[in-house]
């Protein structure tokens, strides 16, 4: 599943999707279009008992609207588990990319809370607090005044309409401060 945000300054659109972790890179070489060509070595695969979650990476796609250049970045850490989906993406004022990851209600991790993934020079994961087990945090947005808001929905997509909430990007705390 892919999520897209036009929150970056200038003319770059950022998208995020699930992808495989590339651990067996033999060589990387620049291509004429500015991207990198990666040659993988599949002779050194992980053992068969490796959990599937270790193969789920976050792939960031950047599209420069002026040049048409498409680049990507793979975060080579096991950050996703099967049955999880991206539910929100935005940039924070300091340039940190913030991604909401929510387990699907019927998955093995369905009772776990949405978590925020902060990507900058480091990777940080923050559990979201203040939501019921069946609730998810969706559609993040950084407002011009620097505050962060989102939508709270049910993980299974049923029930009441979404509610607008304040989100603390540092702690993951959600506050229901907007009237329904």
In short:
With 180 residues, the chain is an all-beta fold. Helix content is 0%, strand content 48%. The protein starts with a strand and ends in a 5-residue tail after the last strand.
Characterization of the model:
This protein has strands at about 1-5, 10-20, 25-30, 35-40, 55-65, 70-75, 85-90, 95-105, 115-120, 125, 135-140, 150-155, 165, 175. By secondary structure, the chain is mainly beta. The strands form 4 sheets. It has a 4-stranded antiparallel β-sheet, with no helix packed on it. Strand 7 (about 85-90) and strand 8 (about 95-105) form a beta hairpin. The two termini are about 30 Å apart.
Give the topology:
Blueprint: E1 2-5, E2 12-20, E3 25-30, E4 36-40, E5 56-64, E6 70-75, E7 84-91, E8 97-103, E9 115-119, E10 123-127, E11 135-142, E12 148-154, E13 163-167, E14 174-175
Antiparallel strand pairs: 1-2, 2-5, 3-4, 5-6, 7-8, 8-9, 9-10, 11-12, 12-13, 13-14
Strand content: over 45%
The neighbouring-strand order within the major sheet is 1-2-5-6
Count of discrete alpha- or pi-helical segments spanning 4 or more residues:
0
Mean pLDDT: 78
Shape: globular
Query: What is the H-and-E element order?
Result: EEEEEEEEEEEEEE
């Amino acid at each position: 599943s892919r999520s897209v945000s036009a929150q970056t300054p200038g003319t770059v659109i950022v998208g995020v999707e699930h992808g495989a972790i590339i651990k067996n890179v033999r060589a990387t070489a620049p291509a004429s279009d500015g991207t990198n060509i990666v040659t993988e070595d599949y002779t050194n695969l992980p053992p068969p008992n490796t959990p599937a979650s270790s193969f789920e990476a976050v792939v960031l796609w950047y599209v420069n609207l002026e040049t048409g250049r498409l680049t990507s970045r793979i975060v080579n850490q096991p950050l996703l588990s099967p049955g999880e989906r991206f539910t929100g993406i935005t940039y924070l004022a300091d340039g940190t990319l913030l991604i909401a990851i929510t387990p699907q209600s019927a998955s093995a991790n369905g009772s776990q809370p949405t978590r925020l993934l902060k990507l900058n020079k480091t990777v940080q994961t923050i559990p979201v607090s203040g939501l019921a087990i069946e609730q998810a945090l969706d559609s993040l947005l950084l407002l011009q005044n620097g505050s962060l808001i989102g939508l709270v929905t049910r993980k299974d997509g049923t029930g009441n309409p979404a509610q607008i909430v304040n989100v603390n990007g540092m702690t993951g705390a959600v506050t229901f401060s907007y009237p329904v």
